[in-house]
Amino acid sequence: MEAASGPIRRLATYWKIEAINVVLIPAIALYFVLRSGGRISAAFVLSALACSFLLVIGTIVLRMMHRRACGETDDAKNPIPLLIRLRWPAMALCTAAAVAIGIECVTQGPRLVSEFVAPAVLLLLAVLEYVNYYHVQLQHFDHPPDWRRLMSGRGFRPSHLARQIARWKREQHPGRAAASRGRAG
Question: Which of 5, 21, 37, 138 has the fewest C-beta atoms under 10 angstroms from its C-beta?
Answer without folding.
Answer: 37
